[in-house]
Write a structure and sequence with these properties.
Radius of gyration of chain A: 32 Å
CATH topology of the largest domain in chain B: Jelly Rolls
Shape of chain B: elongated
Strand content of chain B: over 45%
Distance between the termini of chain B: 36 Å
Order of helices and strands of chain A: EEEEEEEEEHEEEHEEEEEEEEEEEEE
CATH class of the largest domain in chain B: Mainly Beta
Number of helices of chain B: 1
Distance between the termini of chain A: 33 Å
Number of strands of chain A: 25
CATH class of the largest domain in chain A: Mainly Beta
Number of helices of chain A: 2
Helix content of chain A: under 10%
CATH architecture of the largest domain in chain B: Sandwich
Helix content of chain B: under 10%
Oligomer: heterodimer
Number of domains of chain A: 3
CATH architecture of the largest domain in chain A: Sandwich
Largest interface: A-B, 83 and 71 residues
Number of domains of chain B: 2
CATH topology of the largest domain in chain A: Jelly Rolls
Strand content of chain A: over 45%
Structural class of chain B: mainly beta
């Protein structure tokens, strides 16, 4: 079992080592268990200083203790005339032996420490509980367990940022089709939308219309080929390149989704979505925070 | 410990310590105790959250250089206090020949904050898509609502003239993070805490 030897030299006010001082070390708040085998840790360890004023005990390393905010309290029962009882709060590190001095922590700080369970994205805990926190060492993500429906997610109250995007630079897309046509390269990967979240799809590109007073229609489409949003570009002289930027908000979607850009022209005209390295067309689906409380199913 | 305290928004811990963390199961929020002056707050420097939005698609038009309010979005002071905000308006705008149509953001008192002029000196009506971004910082002592308006002015200009539902116009407000670190009480010193003597080694008895 991973233990570390912790030691200290107890001295009186005049610097003389104190012999035979009782020392009691316990876990706060206690009781606690070993994470590697589930066995219970002794709630109390007693020892005393030797002829050199030194006490030394093996203690379970904190990284193997559940609950992981546990910390040790050491009470050195120094006689009143020699200075009185001393109380120290410390954490047993993975370095052994270690001096007590190098392990000290404040009681209030130790109380508030929250140490996520360190896992990887493929080794999540098999029996999580609501509120459990993990740190994925391969992704750097801190996740919380919101129950079996929502699963492991970041803090529900925050924006989770971009969940899918494409930045198309390969080649311009031109059409004269009067029906909406998928723009090559402007469709996002399919991702999972979480119920209770809200999303904004952002599209930014340059477009061009080849015929004066004719219309270019730009649409954001979903995975079922349904149009979600539309803009019309009508120019007074051609060829003119203008930006098109679209923001589309959704708050009631869940499950597998993607978003794509389609364009259509009025009859007899042609139009272009420009896509090149110096003017990429960008389509991004962004999680912008909660719309409702999560459905927490234990 | 591998979990924050699991509570609800009405059952917060009574005696929290600085930095204590909770999960509210009725809101899903992860909150930290920032001290009595700040209370339970989310992690401070993470932005991008949508605080509010207004949307519509009903046709809006102006003539003779009149001005109309298209959308209004207002947020309570406690929602935005001490935060950086990013306002985004996204809208379609059409214009007949001659002069300009202008979409603009205004504050709640109708003062112009940012505009986009759409000039049409050509021989036919034109239409395009517009976005206005406006950033501001809200003080820690903000006491009144914060709001913005999307407005339209001009001569024969319009938004979604054909009343097509998918040609929505939006006004968003995003939280872009804290303007400063919150005020907090001092953290107790790290190290020893002294107590009275309980064991008298000289006399080999509890004192």
């Amino acid at each position: 079992m991973p233990t570390s030897i912790i030691s200290n030299v107890v001295k009186g006010q005049d610097g003389t080592p104190l012999v035979g001082v009782p020392v009691i070390i316990d876990l706060v708040p206690g009781p606690a268990f070993r994470m590697n085998d589930g066995s219970e840790i002794l709630p109390l360890v007693e020892t005393e200083t030797d002829a050199t004023g030194t006490w030394s005990v093996p203690l379970e390393q904190n990284t193997n203790i559940d609950p992981s905010t546990s910390y040790y309290r050491c009470r050195e029962y120094v006689p009143r005339v020699k200075g009185g009882q001393r109380v120290w709060y410390f954490i047993a590190p993975s370095v052994s032996p270690s001096k007590l001095h190098d392990c000290l922590t404040g009681a209030s700080v130790a109380n508030s420490l929250i140490r996520p369970v360190v896992v990887t994205s493929t080794t999540h805990p098999v029996t999580p509980f609501v509120g459990m926190q993990i740190f994925e060492s391969d992704t750097g993500r801190v996740l919380y367990y919101y129950g079996s429906t929502v699963g492991w997610q970041p803090d529900w109250g925050l924006a989770w940022g971009e969940i899918a995007a494409v930045s198309a630079v390969s080649a311009d897309f031109t059409t004269s089709n009067t029906s909406y046509t998928q723009v090559t390269g402007l469709i996002t990967p399919t991702v999972n939308a979480v119920a209770g979240r809200q999303y904004i799809t952002v599209f930014s590109a340059s477009c061009q219309v080849a015929t004066t007073a004719q219309n270019l229609f730009v649409g954001i489409y979903d995975q079922a080929a349904a149009q979600l949003m539309e803009r019309q570009i009508t120019l007074g002289s051609v060829p003119v390149t203008v930006p098109v930027e679209m923001y589309f908000r959704e708050g009631s979607i869940s499950g597998s989704i993607n978003r794509g850009i389609r364009i259509a022209m009025s009859s007899g005209a042609s139009g272009t979505i420009q896509m090149a390295a110096n003017h990429p067309a960008v389509l991004s689906i962004r999680d912008v925070g909660p719309r409702a409380a999560p459905v927490i199913t234990p | 410990m591998s979990a924050p305290g699991v509570v609800t928004s009405t059952t917060h811990p009574p005696n929290p310590q600085l930095g204590d963390c909770i999960m509210e199961t009725d809101t899903g929020y992860i909150l930290y105790w920032g001290g009595p002056n700040v209370g339970w707050i989310p992690s401070q420097d993470i932005g991008g959250r949508l605080l509010g939005y207004a949307e519509g698609y009903a046709p809006v038009s102006v003539s003779s250089f009149a001005t109309v309010t298209v959308l209004t979005l207002t947020l309570a002071p406690q929602t935005v206090r001490g935060r950086n905000l990013l306002w985004i308006a996204n809208y379609p705008l059409g214009k007949t020949t001659g002069s300009a149509g202008t979409g603009f953001l205004a504050d709640i008192n109708d003062n112009v904050l940012s505009d986009r002029v759409f000039n049409n000196g050509l021989s036919n009506s034109i239409e395009s898509a517009f976005t206005i971004l406006y950033r501001e910082s809200i003080s820690l002592t903000q006491q009144i609502n914060v709001g913005k308006k999307l407005k339209l002015t001009g001569n024969n200009a319009w938004m979604n003239q054909s009343s097509i539902p998918n040609r929505k116009y939006y006004l968003f407000c995003f939280d872009e993070g804290s303007i400063v670190a919150p005020a907090s009480p001092p953290v107790p010193p790290v190290g020893a805490l002294w107590n009275i003597a309980l064991w008298d080694a000289t006399q080999s008895k509890w004192g």
